[in-house]
Amino acid sequence: MSSESSPQDTGESKDFVWDDTETYYPLFCLAEAPDEYFDELNLHCGGQASWLAVTSNAEDFSQLLSEIKSHLGQDHTPTPFLGSTVPSVYTFYKNHLRKADDSISHHPFTHFTFLAVDAECFRPSSESGSSSHTILLCSDAPDFHESGDRARLKTLRLPISAALEELDSVEFLTMTPSEVYKSVFEEVNPQVLRVHPPAWFFPKEPLVDNPSEQVYRRATPAEARLRKQQGLRIAETSQQGDGNRSE
User: Residue 172: how many CA atoms within 13 Å on its side-chain side?
Assistant: First the structure.
């Protein structure tokens, strides 16, 4: 993990105001970005997911949050992750940024998904005929064909507009990372939603007056991950059955 902290303009609006009710997608700058890159990033933020540059590498969360807030609106802010890799910032994200697996309280940062910017992101994408710059959408949300319960990091290089449009779909476990990639580059319509329940709602208890109906509560991240994994296995089994019937 790089400890470098040279100041750099990370493109956040000088009018940015911290919102205690918001959940932000952390953005790690692994390479110095030109101003026009952040101009494009800000251009696509209206009405979409809120990202926030991680401008501190403090390991104490209270200190980290305080330092990030203090840097907001400054002309130049620290970029402590220059030269780092996606796996290294993933470790930092897991250990110091995201909400605990067993928590249901509000947390200022996402649990499954973050953004990263490397030098390749500054070259316009030629995929899908896009002239947009790219960004790395990184997530350890469950996906198809993953055995066991261990989280696996998936990194998608997407045009900025597509990444910001799909961030919430990945974080809220509506779509898997592989579905997002296929929907962007192969124009494949995701089918999994038809065969499993929303992951972030967890059965609490049957209704006394109607035992066949259940009361749901918001799931913890660990419960949401488990529920998504179960849904994906149901989907895979269903797809296998459909394949056998078509033979």
Answer: 13
